Each structure stands twice: as C-alpha cells, then as structure tokens.
C-alpha cells in the first residue's frame, strides 16, 4: 500500500490541481472544466497508464462505480497519466468519463506522484470535500466494495468490514455464489444450474486464468480427479471462477470443461478474489457440504495425491500427512535410486555401481549418476515439474548465452522500465542477469505495485513484466 499524505491536513484543491499557466482540467472530448468547479466535491485522484495490465482490468470497474454514483454523489475523478506519449494517453483517456490533468502538464503529474508517494498503479487517492485524504487505498476499496464503499470514509469502511466478518461467520454456498438476481451458475453448453442444487455437496471453487501456464498444467489433473469422483458417485462439484478479460479465450477454455462456472466478468468473481485473499494460481478452494470453507487451496494436494485427497477434510489431510511421515521414516537409498531392474548408478568412467555398494560409502554419491526414471516413476508436484522444465529451457550449467540475442528481437534492441523508459540490451553486457518469469495473475491480486520505482527491467507486455534483471533488485512497498 502506498503511503500517501495522511496527516489530516486538507489540500487546497485549486493549487493541488492547477499550474501557474493552467486553471482547468480536460475531458476526453477536449472540453475544459475549471478546477474551481470542483470545490466541495469528493475527488478521486486516479494514477494509471495505458501500458499497465492491472489498470486495464480496474478501469472498467471504476467506470461502472463512477457512472452509478455520479448522478447523485458529489464525486469527481481526475486521471493522472503515467503514459510516455500523448497518443497513448488520449487512447486510454477516451474510455474514461471523468476529467484529467492535461498530458502536457508533466510537472504537475510528476509533483502529484511525488506528493502522494505513488509506488505502483493502479492507485486511487480519495479526498473529501475539504481536500483531506480519506484513503490512499481507493483502488482496493472500489475493487472490494464497489458502490457500497461510498462515501469512502473510515467509518463506512469499518462498517463494511464488520458486515464482512459477520458474513464469514454465516458463510453459505448461496452467500458465496449468488449475486443480485443471479442465483445460478452455468454449464459449458449454456444451461443455467440453480445454486440451490449444489447445496449439501463438497464444492471446489477453481480460480482460473485461461492463459496462465500453471492453470493450464493443473486443469487436466483436476479434470481427471473430477471425472473419477463423479464415476464413483461422490457428491462433488467444481465451480469455475473465471478471471479472464477476453471472452473468446474463456469460451475456448471452458467448452472443454465438464464442470460449472460463474458467468464471465460477473461481479462476484472479483469479490471472491478479495474474499479468499487470492495470491496464487491455480487456486482451488474447497467448500464443505455445510457451506463452510474446508481449505483455502488444495491445488498442490490434488497434484500430489489426486483422488486420494478427497474429501479434503482436516482428517484426510492428517491421514495424508501420516502416510508421508511413514514413507519418509521407511525411506532407504534403494527406495530413492532403484527403479525396477535398474539397481545401479553410473560412475565417472561409465562403470555400473550397485546401489547397495553406496551404503558403505565407497563411491561418493556426487561422483555417480542415478539412472533416469521413466515419467511414470516420477511423481513431482506441478511446481517441481515447472522448475525442471525451466532448467531445461534456460540450460542450467550449459554453455553461456549471448545476451544480445537472448533478450533482443529482430525489431527490438531494448528492455523497458515500469515507467516506460527504454534501456538498450547492449548496456547489460558483463552484468549478472536474473531472468524472472512471471505472468498476469488477473483480477487485481497481482499488481504492478510489486514492480516499482525503476527497480527492474522487463520485456514488457500489457499484463505484467515477463523479465526482470536481477542486478536491479525490486524493493517491494
């Protein structure tokens, strides 16, 4: 969370938003609005940019809240752009119904960033009618509470948090999945299934981003477990919580799935992300037959134990832990290295050394190579498999890479900072380089706030930095 000015002292709106040669703000059609017209209004200072993926997901949410509140509420929002050129600014601003600091007034935009200590975007600071900061976490409040957060006072937020705690105590499948007049989930063929039909079942809430590689790896395993449980007649159901922005990608992914889903872009999806404090993908939350949360994420357990993890109760987890404990206690060198008839390792000279000989300590283990087990003999978790795959791709321990060709493209010889600045790849020669592979986590739980203040470089992309250079270590807020 950024640390905006919170000393209670009011800001003079006129001097805050004006410049010596400018006393107006602009609309996306070019109209000018005098800053003086905003006196007495609540003001949201919206720090955002066209190149920021999380901003693209948050802006439509903010637009919806603004449009719903603006007819009656005394509220105005001011866009403070972090774009690098006016064309990008105008294209992004064209989707916004509020006002903006003119892009040409970079001094004012920079001073507001500094004044409110903006360390990541999207970022929304809300001022009351006197110019006093109500909150510097407006984006989190809007994402979590929507219009219900108005008038964004500490008292209102406390009231909502108290209501939320009460809802957790009284949690049910209906309270989790029903939103407004929608009391159903949908199947891949478009049928509507009443949520009441799921009550009394064990339900997995599967948070999915279609283009997320980890989700792509996990989905087949979950489908296997789901179909086996269905074949056994178990009272188990999965409800997809889609985090996609693109309808075509979601439809293509969902059409092959045997379970149910909340409608794409349903408001409940965003609320559930916050409710379950989503921090990683894939996430499979288990709701018990009584509507209470059994486990906040069993994805790794499903990867490792499959159907044996069902019904995901504390008792089952205790049973699995005991089995693992017994396995470790009974572990021998043979159980680790022997696979079928392969009861030897290979020495440096290519000689076969029986595993049983290793117990005497004759040949050190690091001087030998264990035979590679078949895929069926290997039981890694999804994360272990991904680490192995990345080692293969990058070539750990292999010949050195030419940095220029590794990080450049035919039409690009630069990397970017999170403020849009370009850095020539050639300037990195001789440095240690860390390749940080990351992806969009969707729906607000992975923000650009984790990559701040020119702390790293990236290949770029709308959603997230796909590469950081480890010599410039990010300092998280």
How does this model look, in words?
With 477 residues, the protein is an alpha+beta fold. 32% of the residues lie in helices and 15% in strands. It has a seven-stranded mixed β-sheet, with helices on both faces. The protein has a five-stranded mixed β-sheet with strand order 5-4-3-6-7, with helices on both faces. Strands 1-2 form a two-stranded antiparallel sheet. Helix 3 links the parallel strand 4 (75-81) and strand 5 (99-100). The chain starts with 12 loop residues before the first helix and ends in a 53-residue tail after the last strand. Mean pLDDT is 82; it is low at 1-6, 370-398, 440-456 and 459-477.
Q: Give the helix/strand class.
A: alpha+beta
What is the overall shape? Answer: globular
* Estimated share of beta-strand residues: 15-25%
Q: What is the strand tally?
A: 18
Distance between the ends = 7 Å
Query: On the 0-100 scale, what is the average pLDDT?
Result: 82
Number of helices: 15
- Rg (CA only): 27 Å
Low-confidence stretches: 1-6, 370-398, 440-456, 459-477
Strands ordered across the widest β-sheet: 9-8-12-11-10-13-14
The biggest sheet amounts to:
7 strands, mixed
How much helix, percentage-wise, in residues? 25-40%
């Amino acid at each position: 969370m950024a640390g905006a000015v919170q000393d209670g002292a009011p800001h003079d709106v006129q001097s805050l938003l004006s410049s010596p040669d400018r006393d107006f703000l602009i609309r996306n059609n070019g109209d000018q609005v005098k800053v003086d017209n905003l006196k007495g209004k609540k003001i949201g200072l919206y720090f955002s940019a066209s190149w920021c993926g999380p901003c693209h997901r948050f802006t439509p949410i903010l637009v919806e809240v603004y449009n719903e509140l603006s007819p009656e509420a005394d509220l105005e929002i001011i866009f403070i752009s972090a774009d690098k050129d006016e064309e990008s600014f105008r294209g992004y601003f064209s989707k916004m119904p509020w006002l903006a600091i003119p892009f040409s007034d970079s001094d004012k935009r920079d001073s507001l960033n500094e004044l409110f200590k903006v360390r990541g975007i999207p970022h929304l600071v809300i001022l009351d009618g006197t110019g006093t900061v109500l909150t510097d976490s407006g984006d989190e409040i809007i994402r979590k509470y929507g219009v219900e957060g108005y008038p964004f006072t500490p008292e209102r937020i406390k009231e909502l948090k108290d209501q939320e705690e009460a809802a957790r105590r009284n949690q049910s499948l209906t309270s989790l999945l029903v939103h407004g007049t929608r009391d159903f989930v949908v199947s891949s063929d478009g049928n509507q299934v009443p949520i009441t039909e799921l009550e009394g079942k064990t339900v997995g809430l599967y948070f999915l981003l279609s283009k997320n590689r980890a989700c792509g790896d996990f989905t087949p395993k979950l489908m296997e477990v789901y179909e086996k449980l269905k074949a056994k007649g178990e009272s188990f159901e999965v409800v997809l919580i889609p985090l996609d922005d693109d309808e075509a990608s979601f439809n293509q992914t969902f059409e092959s799935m045997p379970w149910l889903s909340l409608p794409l872009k349903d408001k409940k999806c965003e609320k559930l992300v916050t409710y379950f404090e989503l921090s990683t993908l894939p996430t499979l939350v288990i709701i018990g037959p009584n509507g209470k949360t059994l486990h906040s994420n069993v994805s790794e357990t499903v990867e490792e134990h499959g159907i044996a993890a069902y019904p995901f109760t504390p008792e089952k987890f205790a049973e699995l832990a005991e089995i693992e404990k017994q396995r470790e206690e009974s572990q021998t060198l043979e159980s680790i290295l022997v696979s079928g008839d392969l009861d030897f390792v290979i020495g440096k000279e290519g000689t076969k050394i029986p595993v049983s000989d290793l117990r005497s300590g004759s040949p050190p283990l690091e001087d030998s190579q264990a035979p590679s087990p078949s895929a069926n003999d290997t039981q890694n978790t999804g994360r272990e498999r991904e680490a192995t795959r990345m080692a293969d791709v990058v070539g750990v321990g292999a010949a050195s890479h030419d940095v220029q060709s590794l990080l450049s493209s035919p039409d690009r010889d630069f990397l970017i900072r999170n403020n849009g600045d370009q850095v020539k790849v050639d300037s990195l020669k001789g440095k240690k380089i860390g390749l940080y592979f990351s992806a969009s986590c969707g729906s607000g739980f992975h923000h650009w706030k984790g990559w701040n203040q020119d702390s790293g470089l990236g290949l770029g992309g709308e959603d997230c930095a796909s590469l950081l250079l480890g010599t410039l270590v990010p300092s998280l807020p």
